[in-house]
Amino acid sequence: MRELAASVLEWTGPFAVASVVSVRGSAPRPVGAALAVHPDGRVVGSVSGGCVEGAVYELALEVLATGTPRLARFGYSAEDAFAVGLTCGGELEVFVQLATPEIRAAMRAAVEGRPVVLTRSLVMGTGSVEFPESAPTSSSVVDNSLVESWGTAPRLLVFGAIDYASAVARQGKFLGYHVTVCDARPVFATVDRFPHADDVVVDWPHRYLAATPTDTSTAVCVLTHDPKFDVPLLKTALRLPLAFVGALGSRRTHLDRVARLRAEGVTDAELARLRSPIGLDLGAATPEETAVSIAAELVAVRRGGGGLPLSWTEVPIHKDAAAVCGA
User: Fold this and answer.
1) Residue 317 in contact with residue 305, Cβ under 8 Å?
2) Is 263 helix (H, G, I), strand (E, B) or coil?
């Protein structure tokens, strides 16, 4: 439900929230995915990628009219493939209720970037909200209650204030990252040039990385392809427990970069963590296309994807719920 927060906090008066509380088999959205319906007909979010949205919308209107929470199950109907259900063969349960003060408070905390834990009864819709100092991002059902824990957004650190960085920052925000653009050159590192970044920092990249908080969800994209910036930055990054370290550049640039890093004492094990040239092979040419290829690699690493066309594989399209919880 966190993804709805920025859109629905401005809504005044009652509105309905539908949340996925159970998934079986192949289904497009995980536990915790949500959809909000305003009395005037506005809809934000999704619970199934389109399969049962119409039925859930009607259920939300009913809840708005009665005030009574509803728990509904949707699944594939072998007898009637056009019946309301999931034609992908999965089954899900959706809980619909009016937005409570606790839900509104949790959404407000999410927009402000504060960790929050929201617990709701799947019978009455009542619940509680807590604001811990830190929290993992997860959604699960425990003792007939939906427990949603939202940590702070993962960080995407983009180094190099170039046109590619602007496109990568935009993709990063789209994927839910807290995006920082950093460059040592103040003439290029400006808020006007990077409107989609949460922070624009003027500092030497390696110095900023060494001083800023990072964790195992942090992604680093090095776009400068200038040795005086790249080498000390990558030397620092490859020795931190980060989720992703990638660097832009041609294959010739990559070979030169690796040689320079080895000369600085970076080990083969550390170099094995470097994703360079950064991005998946999409044939990208423009900064925007390159940003999509970088975003695709970030998603593949984050979710355990292989990066191949789905038509070439026979693996499950949707990974297990634990891998995508909190998406």
Assistant:
1) no
2) helix
Structure tokens at 54: 């119409």
| Residues 37 and 65: beta-carbon distance below 8 Å | no
Residue-range domain boundaries for the chain: 2-150, 155-303
Residue of 176, 179, 219, 178 whose CA lies nearest to 3: 176
Summarize pLDDT for 91-132 with one digit per residue, the tens. 889 999 999 999 999 999 998 889 999 999 999 999 999 999
Cα distances from 6 to residues 44, 51, 191, in angstroms, run 10, 25, 21
SS3 content of the chain, % helix, strand, coil (to 5): 30, 25, 45
Q: What is the DSSP string of 138-170?
A: EEEEETTEEEEEE-PPPEEEEES-SHHHHHHHH
**Cis peptide bond N-terminal to 277, omega within 30:** yes
Is CATH 3.40.50.2300 the right assignment for the domain spanning 155-303? Answer: no
Tokens, residue 69: 């929470």
How much is the pTM? 0.81
